[in-house]
Amino acid sequence: MDTNDIFANAKGTEGLAQSFVHKEQRLDRAGITLMALPPGHVSFEIKTNKTLLNVQPFGSRSAVDYQRVEGTDYQGAVLNGCAFDMFAKGISLDLQARNFDWEIVLEFDDGVLSKLDAEAYDGFWEMPDMAYGRRDASAAQISTLMIEHIRFGDRDPVYLETLALAMVRRCMTVGRAPQRLVSARGNGPRIERAIAHLEDNLASKPSVAELADIAAMSPSWFAKSFRQETGKAVHAFARDLRLERAKAQLIATNKPISEISRECGFSDQSHMTRSFQSAFGTSPAKIRNDR
């Protein structure tokens, strides 16, 4: 079963089959297929017929309920952004997970990775499970740009190819040298701590000063570094996080809309409705009814 078959048969809360058809981009020159994975449940048991790379952007969150790689069970966990997994061709993979936000998946034709970096590729795949649960701020930032372009851009293949190759090369480097899991600018871990705090406290709407304190940085330096690391201002990042979290809950749960609005940090249900109309062009009630 190949990747497209997996998602065509998956029963995601947003209809993964339809979502993947509309959020996929083939890069023929690079031999890479990009897929923007929407929020929802994913459950499959396969032997990969191509190499796969899955990257979480900043601010995203997923819950791995169960995962077995090559017969080895891995404990379930909640991943808060910046994580990536890479699985070589021929790997047995059994996965049950929930994505609360968008993620990016890359599928590689045979020989693509070895052409990019034969030395890194050979060393990397001596132990395939080494690719599971890595974290890197630079790869996360690139994935954010890719997801936004696939979802909302004009699908420029040259731009996407450049981002894809940069992200693949970065993940291969990090996989080969596990100690290099931070941004080249050195502030990645601090920003990650602040993002984790923001994700865990959306309802209380942490201020920039509070997040800067978590990151052990001055507010002005934190705001500048945050934009450098994520590509967004703090308020824009928090807004998008609230929107995507609320949208995922509308689709995946039966909670009252008013309760979701409070949990996600909106002032009230009316505020959430206005925000949805501005961001998605539709209302929370319509998204729930169409799930």
Automatic annotation (TrEMBL):
Transmembrane parts of this sequence: none
Annotated keywords: DNA-binding, Transcription, Transcription regulation
Family matches, as InterPro entries: AraC_XylS_family_regulators (IPR050204), Homeodomain-like_sf (IPR009057), HTH_AraC (IPR018060)
Alphabetized SUPFAM superfamilies for the sequence: Homeodomain-like
GO MF term list: DNA-binding transcription factor activity; sequence-specific DNA binding
Domain HTH araC/xylS-type, residue spans: 192-290
Domain of life the protein comes from: Bacteria
Protein name: Helix-turn-helix domain-containing protein
Species lineage: Bacteria, Pseudomonadati, Pseudomonadota, Alphaproteobacteria, Rhodobacterales
